[in-house]
Amino acid sequence: MQKNFKTPTKLSKFKYKEDRWPVFIILTLTIIDFVLYFTVNNIVLLVSYYLLMILPKGVICAWNHHHQHLFTFRNTLLNRGLEFIYALHTGVTTHLWRLHHVLGHHVNFLNQEQDESRWKRKDGTRMGVVEYTLIVALTAYTRGYSVGKRYPKQFKPFLIYTAITSIIVAILVWYKPVAGLLLFVLPMITSLLFTAYVTYDHHSGLDTENEFEASYNNLDPLFNRLTGNLGYHTAHHHKQGVHWSKLPALHAKIEAEIPTHLYQKSIFTRMFVGR
């Protein structure tokens, strides 16, 4: 069935031509970060830029998520390079989401005792959004590490490139402490928290064993344009290997299975796109 949704371009280093514009935009933002790092010393300007970029870099988290499900390039070296760029924006290094999210959450999202992004407390009650955000963000690396011990082929790149990324970021901070903190370290922390915050809406409160009743969906066009159709969340969980550009078509095939009360606007949409 999945082959029906795959239409990769064969003459490109990209697996799917739809990824070209998102990657171009993210690379452009990365270049701007480094230009500012080497040329700007004014703390007011750097703080202003950090605040201005909280939302754009939060949106980049969605594209890092897509990449961890289905690698963007055919070439491994290009994928590792893109993951380093993603890490600088999102705080999520190579293979962390592949372990925590793809091999963890997607396997266990119907089981709140094992889900790596679980929204239930140990006593079975529902966490609040702040509690959930802090727990999921603060345990992201430890839970990813725990999953990784079961998947050594995925675990090794995670350890290697997390170490490399950490060393490079440490050098950037050592060389220019203020710029390094405001352009890289703080955005990494903020984006990881932002990622956890917006995922609270995906499954919170849906205690079910039916995969078609376990995710909220957001069909707002602007939200899906910004996040690569992440609002088609039931379809994404139904076939997580489907490229983000094919999710609307997959959703159309299964929408009869999705209860109407599972369509709503997310926290992200309510905050930034409007009601």
Automatic annotation (TrEMBL):
Pfam families xrefs: FA_desaturase
Example of a GO biological process term: lipid metabolic process
Every Fatty acid desaturase domain range: 45-262
InterPro entries: FA_desaturase_dom (IPR005804)
Protein keywords: Membrane, Transmembrane, Transmembrane helix
Membrane spanning residue stretches: 21-40, 46-64, 158-175, 181-200
Protein name: Fatty acid desaturase
Originating organism: Neptunomonas qingdaonensis
